[in-house]
Amino acid sequence: MTTEDCLFCQIIAGDIPADIIYESDDAVAFRDINPQAPTHVLIVPRQHIATINDLTDEDCDTVGKLFMAAQAIAKEEGLADDGYRTVMNCNAAAGQSVFHIHLHLLGGRLMSWPPG
Ligand code: 5GP
Ligand code: ZN
Q1: Residue 24 pLDDT exceeds 70
Q2: I want to staple 10 with a disulfide (CB 3.0 to 4.6 A). Which of 16, 42, 48, 110 is the partner?
Q3: Catalytic annotation on 100?
Q4: Residue 104: nearest ligand to its CA?
Q5: Ligand 1 mutation target, pool 12, 33, 49, 90, most atoms within 8 A of CB
Q6: Helix and strand counts by DSSP (H, E) for the chain
Q7: What single DSSP character describes residue 52?
Q8: 35 lines ligand 1 (CB under 6 A)
Q9: % of the chain beyond a pLDDT of 90
């Protein structure tokens, strides 16, 4: 897949609308179109990386920045003290449906464990 037919690359480029709530040099975050919690945000690197399996050592900083964005957004959304969940699915068995890595940030309700 090229960035031209990647849904999240198109959102990052502004070609497809999304409720963007955070932008930095490295990452963009927007609200999930089908939220699974009162807050459900997707944090994506500007760089197109299809899956966790495609990460290299050079991407360590990029992935770290996704978590720093999650920390900032959780605080902004009032989730930091009560708690929240971050999830990154990899490939079909985990339910990955968009092949541009993204960190789900979910909060605002009690989370169960183990996940389904
Ligand atoms: P995955 O299943 O790959 O871990 O997560 C993909 C997420 O992207 C899903 O939670 C899905 O609801 C969300 N999603 C799919 N298409 C769109 C879209 O066009 N806009 C937004 N904001 N979210 C989307
Ligand atoms: Zn992409």
Answers
A1: yes
A2: 16
A3: no
A4: 1
A5: 33
A6: 3, 5
A7: G
A8: no
A9: 96
Strands 20-23 and 39-45: unpaired
The finding on whether 7 has its CB within 6 A of some atom of ligand 1 is: yes
73 Cα: distance to centroid of ligand 2 (angstroms) = 21
Quick one: which atom of ligand 1 is closest to the CA of 19?
Answer: 22
d(CA 20, CA 68): 17
Structure tokens at 40: 């459900």
Would the pLDDT of 1 be above 80? Answer: no
Which of the four CATH numbers 3.65.10.10, 3.30.428.10, 3.40.50.360, 1.10.287.110 does domain 7-107 have?
3.30.428.10
Mean pLDDT of 22-29: 98
